[in-house]
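RESIDUES AND SHAPES:
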Amino acid sequence: MIAARKSWASLAFLVVLLSMSACKKAEQSAGRDDLPDLNAQMRPYVTVEGTRVRTGPGPQFRPVAEVPRKARVYVVGRDGDWALIVSKKGNPPGFVELAALEPATGDEPEPPARSVEGSYETLANTQVRSGPGLHYPVVAEVAKGTKIHVVDEEKGWFKVVSKRGNKPGYVDSGMVKPMSER
């Protein structure tokens, strides 16, 4: 009986050692080329309704942006009933409900031109840049909830003017929402 226990214990010990060795070999053999390319996984979708982008897959997560109806988004994966979307403009990734999306066909009509001029509120701490893109220098930081005045839109960026006489700057249009008229 004792000999059988010792042989089972030895066998169990040997199995553990072999599995640890296999794990180390797998870790060592995994390289940079084994990682999936997110650009190859991106799939275009269109929103069927206005929806919020959240920091995680569920309504309990903080909203970071709002996406209007008929907007093109790029999905790289899903978690349950939530799609992980990425931005081609440098916005942080986020999650939207799958029910708010449908696959893009390429035949979607362009959304009607809309006037963007007016008062907006920032949805998160936001950087103001000297031009409409991430390659332009940051000229100011704006706190979440700050009221800004938009005068134009260029390449997905809103041109904002300062009441203090500073030069105009640009904020990513996904980082703001229109102020409700009261």
